[in-house]
Amino acid sequence: MANSGDTITLKNIASHCKEYGFIYPSSEIYDGLGATYDYGPYGSELKNNIKEYWWKAMVRMNENIVGIDAAIFMHPTTWKASGHVDAFNDPLIDNKDSKKRYRADVLIEEQIAKIEGKIAKEVNKATKRFGDAFDKDQFVATNPRVIKYTEQIADIESRMKSAIEAGDLEALKQLIVDLDIADPVSGSRNWTDVRQFNLMFSTELGSVAGEAGKIYLRPETAQGIFVNYLNVQKTSRMRLPFGIAQIGKAFRNEIIARQFIFRMREFEQMEMQFFIKPGTEMEWYDHWKNQRIKWHKALGLGEENYRFHDHLNLAHYANAACDIEFNFPMGFKELEGIHSRTDFDLSAHEKHSGKKLQFFDNEMNESYVPYVLETSIGLDRMFLAVMSAAYTEEKLEDGSERTVLKIPPALAPVKVAVLPLVNKDGLPEKAEEIMKAVKLDFNAQYDAKDAIGKRYRRQDAIGTPYCVTVDHQTLEDNTVTIRERDSMAQQRVSVPELIATLDDKVNIKNLLKQL
Questions:
Q1: Measured distance CA(351)–CA(369) in Å, rounded
Q2: Which residues form a coiled coil (predicted)?
Q3: Of the given ranges (212-226, 415-429, 446-460), which has the lowest mean pLDDT?
Q4: DSSP state, 336?
Q5: What confidence tens digit (pLDDT) does each residue in 340-351 have?
Q6: 434 lies in the same domain as 507
Q7: Residues 362 and 303 in one domain
Q8: Per-residue pLDDT tens for 147-166?
Q9: Is 90 exceeded by the pLDDT of residue 283?
């Protein structure tokens, strides 16, 4: 992150996003609306590039995966069948003094993270003490303090899992009391009882209010895929195993929506449901874990910023689940989920709809309800992951400073800026001629205002990977200078070679080839 050694905070990133047109608070002229944001000119470009990378990797690169775009509104029985009406709840607890509301499980997980931090501190101290001779595995297995911390974590996790699985809200509160967890705002330990809260937004369909017209804004995009399983399987002539991918908005009435765009009430998901033969789910679970982490690491955001986290508390539909976590400014948090959903969803929709949602297996000469393997990534969280890794404050050799977004070139909102060295002597005309050619292939920007150094800094701040400078030599030999964002190195290329040279550097194919 910050090359200067300073810690980059969420506040730094949010402030930069607003100043440079990536993300604005929604309805800001009316003082905003909590936990909702609008993507600005560069934000919407970056968001679309992330979508394109995911869609091409998931749909174009896999002949047995197709895409759909399902409606946000669905028949209300969909959510009864999926378990959302009865089971889509968060355990909430209020602090009586600060009047703040929290998810009980998140408070406990944050306490576990603090203990993990103590372990990391012990490991860091030992690493410095023993240097190259340090054996981390042996140290973790034998150091008395680390063993004590590890046992504490195991005990907390075991108690939390038991309480959540049993729906024992009293046990969850008792764990918070026993761990002496204080309100992060006031430091108070004056807690209410834990209560369940359903996260779905409801609204009315048609002009008559009442229970009969009650429908929900979808809390996930997966169910739109499940109810279309048969349509897609038949019309696309798909055989198991095959997948259905979708990018779309989802809505959750999060009581504690916070941490910028990390947790919002309106967000976008990129999901793929992979339909498989029962009994093969663990094989496919491992396959998609490997494929998805490869997709992330191809971006070059730092391998150390990713880790897998197995779920302690499995959802009602899953028999295996893990998260790919990313090291955001607020620590490691969930970025993508990979879940083995068994046949829960299709069986539930078959039961509630009375329609047969089965696959006829010619080899086995029998019909069965397929199992499902899910990959689900939050687009907004992916956006934040890219920005967190990219945001850099650098001190340069000449003593000056710059803020630069080191966004992977294939994802960058603007791929190239065309800059006449000075705004005279025929250079603007030549630069505009080049701009006309490059904008057919790339999202390009023309900038002739201010000194060239200032223009470079502007492009650095929005993450433009390459600047093409048109100077007096260009008029003589038809060559231009390409300046690279991260290293600030420059190379001279001829104008006829320019588009091919840039394409080689910024094409999304560079990412897809690594998968």
A1: 12
A2: none
A3: 212-226
A4: E
A5: 999 999 999 999
A6: yes
A7: yes
A8: 999 999 999 999 998 888 78
A9: yes
Alpha carbon of 399 to those of 7, 392, 395, 456: distances in Å?
20, 16, 6, 17
Residue 505: which of 415, 444, 406 has the closest Cα? 415
Whether 475 contacts 489, CB under 8 Å: no
- Rounded CA separation 507/225 (Å): 30
* Cα–Cα dist 366/392, whole Å: 58
Angle at 186 between CA 182 and CA 191, to 5 degrees: 50
Binding residues for substrate, as ranges, are: 103, 220, 267-271, 374-378
Do 259 and 350 fall into the same domain? yes
Same domain, residue pair 215 and 265: yes
Please state the rounded mean pLDDT for residues 43-69. Answer: 97
Is 84 within a domain?
A: no
Phi, psi at 371, each rounded to 5°: -85, 165
Same domain, 230 and 274: yes
Rounded Cα gap, residues 129 and 51, in angstroms = 46
pLDDT of residue 255: 65
Residue ranges at the known binding site: 103, 220, 252-254, 262-271, 334-335, 374-381
Contact 76, 211 (CB under 8 A): no
Order of strands, edge to edge, in the sheet holding 306-310?
65-67, 242-251, 266-276, 371-378, 331-342, 320-328, 306-310
SS3 state of residue 306: strand
Question: Is the predicted pLDDT of residue 209 greater than 70, yes or no?
Answer: no
On whether both 384 and 264 belong to a single domain, the answer is yes
pLDDT for the residue 316:
67
**Exposed (0-12), middle (13-18) or buried (19+): which is 125, by Cβ within 10 Å?**
exposed
Domain that holds residue 194: 89-198
Quote the pLDDT of residue 230.
94
With 90 as the cut, is the pLDDT of residue 212 above it?
A: no
The residue written with tokens 């992951």 in the block is 385
Sequence ranges of the binding site for ATP: 252-254, 262-267, 334-335, 378-381
Output the domain CATH number for residue 140. 3.30.40.230
Region 321-331 average pLDDT = 94
pTM of the model: 0.83
Report whether the peptide linkage leading into residue 41 is cis, meaning its omega lies within 30 degrees of zero. no
Per the prediction, the chain carries an average pLDDT of: 91
Residues with Cβ within 8 Å of residue 133, at least 6 apart in sequence:
none
